[in-house]
Every structure is written in C-alpha cells, then in structure tokens.
C-alpha cells in the first residue's frame, strides 16, 4: 500500500481527472480504473508503433535501402529515446493512479 503525500495526492487526482474526463462526475472507482486501463493500453500501442518505425528505419539503413546521414541518425536516436522516456513516465503515472484508486476503494 503506497502512501501519497499531499502534493503527490493532488497531482495524482489531477491525472486521474484528466484521464477520466469523458466519464460522469459520479463515476465509480471501477469505472475510473477501466478508463485508466484503456489509457495505459493506448500508451503501450504508441510505444510499439514507435519501436516498429525506428526498427524499420534501422533495417532500411542496414540493408542499404535507405541512406541517412549521420546527423539524421543521431536525431532519430534522440527522438526515439525521448519518446520512450515519455512513454515510460506516462506508464508510471498510470500505475500510480491505479494504485491510488485501488487504495481508495
């Protein structure tokens, strides 16, 4: 059972509210958990799409289909790393929010 400080609790509640804005105000915790699970699935799909696109570029470069300059490769790696970092951070937010709602039951 995770303990949430005042500021962390407020941020988590704001995150939950932003992810469940399509639900009615009196939505149950289970409905909110379902909305959070759907959001987490969406993040995982975007992460998979990101990995596939980068793998496609590197496969094309490896086989000689595409020739990217060194600068473009570095930019691609930086953007890929930043995207994965943001995806993992967002997944962590979903896990915190899920834990928070489960503790509220």
Description:
- It is a single chain.
- This protein is an all-alpha fold.
- The protein has one domain.
- The chain is built from three helices and no strands.
- Helix 1 crosses helix 3 and helix 2 packs antiparallel against helix 3.
- The chain is elongated, with a radius of gyration of 19 Å.
- The two termini are 12 Å apart.
- The model has no long low-confidence stretch (mean pLDDT 87).
In short:
The chain is mainly α.
Layout of helices and strands, plus pairs?
Layout: H1 6-19, H2 29-63, H3 70-104
Helix pairs in contact: 1-3, 2-3
How many individual helices?
3
Q: Give the CA-based shape.
A: elongated
Show unreliable segments: none
Q: How far apart are the first and last residues' alpha carbons, in Å?
A: 12 Å
Q: Which class do the helix and strand fractions yield?
A: mainly alpha
What's the helix-strand series? HHH
Into which percent range does the helicity of residues fall?
over 70%
The main pleated sheet reads as: none
Task: Considering the chains and any ligands shown, give keywords for the structure.
105 residues; mainly alpha; 3 helices; elongated
């Amino acid at each position: 059972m995770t303990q949430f400080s005042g500021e962390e609790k407020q941020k988590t509640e704001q995150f939950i509210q932003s992810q469940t804005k399509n639900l009615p105000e009196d939505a149950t915790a289970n409905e909110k958990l379902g909305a959070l699970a759907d959001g987490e699935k969406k993040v995982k799909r975007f992460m998979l799409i990101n990995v596939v696109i980068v793998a496609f570029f590197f496969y094309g470069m490896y086989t000689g289909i595409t020739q990217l300059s060194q600068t473009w490769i570095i930019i691609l790696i930086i953007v890929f790393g930043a995207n994965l970092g943001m995806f993992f951070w967002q997944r962590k937010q979903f896990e915190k929010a899920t834990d928070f709602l489960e503790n509220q039951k």
